[in-house]
What we know:
- The protein has 11 helices and 9 strands.
- By secondary structure, the protein is an alpha/beta fold.
- It folds into 2 domains: 131 residues, 3-Layer(aba) Sandwich (Rossmann fold); 169 residues, 3-Layer(aba) Sandwich (Rossmann fold).
- Strands 7-6-5-8-9 form a 5-stranded parallel β-sheet, with helices on both faces.
- The radius of gyration is 19 Å and the shape is globular.
Amino acid sequence: MISDQHLVSVANITKPELLDYFESAERMRPKRRQTHTPQHPRKTLIALFYEPSTRTSCSFQAAAIKLGCKVISIADKMSSAEKGESLEDTIRTLQYYGDAIVLRHPMKGAALRAAAVSGVPIINAGDGNGEHPTQALLDAFTIYSEFKSRFEIDLDSEHRDVITIAFAGDLKNSRTIHSLIRLLTLFPKLRFLYASPPELEMPEEIVNYVGAFNTYDQCKVGDVKDAIRQADVLYMTRIQKERFESESAYLAAMSHSELYSVTPDIMSLAKPQMLLMHPLPRLNEIAVEVDADERATYFKQVENGLYMRMAILDKIFRNGH
Length: 321
Ligand code: NCD
């Protein structure tokens, strides 16, 4: 049994905890620029990344610095993993140097393996095509706060209309989606649409997880045009080249990528109040011309990521770790 000091999956997050995360992230917002008494000056965060990352890695490090922590950052090629050291031995070592470890790893289940041997909290920053709980927290926070501040809609209310959330692109490999959709099942009255190439469909594990609630309608649609016409939130994803077995399989999937890309023309089919989201990095899934559209929400996600990661670290360090 893995202790709950870790953040490996969204599976154990309860509704009150999620709303606490949202409130705490909101409180972090003004601390981005303001000088404030740093909350955790005696803590050290270790960022251990075995896969490329810009936002997740840097936002965790920035969040730690803003909370007054020290940061040790270690990337794949510089670690003893290059010499063949096991993940477990690396974690057993690093636990003596820091108070929490943020881990990104190409293998599904890696964060759980790390948590099984770690004396300090493990924060899963993406494990292969498994989960990405901190991205899901910031994405859910973005949906919740945008609906509230822009449209005066409470995501948590039973008395609103059904909200349709569409996911498009590489639904098979997008760990951000796998975590986000699980987290969204904490809210009522949602409907989910899935638009993907046939070989990149939503994994059965996720469809069954959502289906087990018996309250959410899930529907496969043909392409992004079908999705955008109905969506209140459209969450785009990159076709994840690094998860394919061969270059030719990747190229075959990319050959229909145009059907899963948003251009200004396609945006003209969307509702005036839709949120267009993407965890980034983007390739051709969203044309840069769409960035000026006020429905484009992906750089707000980036900003919110900093506040959410401050909230996550603050919670972990306040709990005495
Ligand atoms: C995503 C990831 O790494 O899973 N990026 C992120 O963390 N913001 C999405 C991706 O790489 O496509």
